[in-house]
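User:
I study polymers; will you set down one protein's sequence and backbone structure tokens?

Assistant:
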Amino acid sequence: MPPARVRSLSLPSDLVRQAERLAKEEGRTKTEVLREALRRYGQEKRWRRLKRYGAGQARKVGLTAAGVGRAIQEYRGGR
């Protein structure tokens, strides 16, 4: 990871209290809690984008959600 840079961040009081509570419960700093929250947000956003892409690709070839699962099982079983 590149060196950390200090930034200013404005948060509503309730989010600050929540970050403080979580940090205390987990024995971590608020910075660590907020850093993890941002990482998770980014991961979730990428996952949603990938799912949307996959659903579009499945539609193009005429597969439903259940059909995708079956196609994967068939592919894996054929290896």
Notes: The chain has three helices and no strands. The chain has a mean pLDDT of 92.
